[in-house]
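Lab manual, section 2.4: Encoding a predicted structure.

Procedure: take the sequence of the chain (384 residues), apply the prediction step described in section 2.3, and record the output as structure tokens. A sample record is shown.
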Amino acid sequence: MGPLSGYRIVEFAGLGPAPFAGMMLSDMGAEVLRVERANAPVMQDPKLNIMNRGRKSVAIDLKNPEGVDIAQELIKKADCLIEGYRPGVMERLGLGPDICLEVNPKLVYGRMTGWGQDGPLANAAGHDINYIALTGALHAFGHKNDKPVPPLNLVGDFGGGAMFLSFGIVCALLEASKSGQGQIVDAAMVDGIASLTSMFHGLIANGLWQDKPASNSLDSAAHFYDTYECADGKFVAIGAIEPKFYELLVEKIGLANDPQMHNQHDPSEWPELSNKFAAVFRTKSRAEWCKILEGTDACFAPVLSFSEAKEHPHMKSRGNFITQGNLTQPAPAPRFSRTPGSIQSPPSEPGSHSKEALKRWGIEKSKIENLIQNKIVLQHKNVG
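Recorded output:
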């Protein structure tokens, strides 16, 4: 049983960070019920959508007042609600925080948006790339004299979004256990991303960081913190910041006798030193460099694809990936010594558990049958 076992969460199904937060909370033991829109378009095979794992799914027509009533009945029994719509959508549905907190005063109401619930851009459309652009983060990604490169949607959706929403929810649940009162958690990606950049704002204030890409020790300007192509076209990653680790790296790649290598932290030397590193790493394959450097204090790792990462001995030894049926997926994280998290169930079709879930959450059987008959609640056709 995970550390959040016993908590009940209603998740209004959406895209990106909100379902990822729901997945994390479920992995930690919470009972999370996904409320899907009836007849919502399906963008991918639901049974392979890893972010939807671990939760029961009920499909409700929230445009029907009876559907809203059922949603409110579920909310009465929940400790937390998650929604990831634009500001005002839940209010228009009759499920805004004022109504829900009146229905359930101890409710933690988690809201996930890109721009936040207020501000000049609050009602504008956007995606991860827009949020990381506005906060200054995107500007920092990319090589010298090249355009910014989006780091997938890891920094905005999942780092600055889902992680901060989950953290905020757990904080609010802890507070509610003491005060008996719920509250709204306004998790905006621009807020979370800004927080993630705290270290760099401090470095800039101290004159230790240039506010332009590929000019600093951690953004590919320094030869000791970058990726290098190998003889086979694959890449390795080097992060030898500390002098003792750097000296070991230089020794193992055969450059210990080059006096220029002693100028590790002289930015004026970095371009030429980078060229020397690049020339050396091109002399051997990635596998050969792994034999020389992997497992040492040279701060080295091969740059692996998603598929390759699953097969690496270290990742396998820690069980970082779990196979359920034919689906291999990342394991729950972080780890707990006494109450470990687990994947509660595989991803499911929308509405797969409508009857089962509503019954479990205290809705009368006759009412459930009537709701399904009137298509206010949908039960997936492959489920009895």
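Check your result against the sample. The mean pLDDT is 95.
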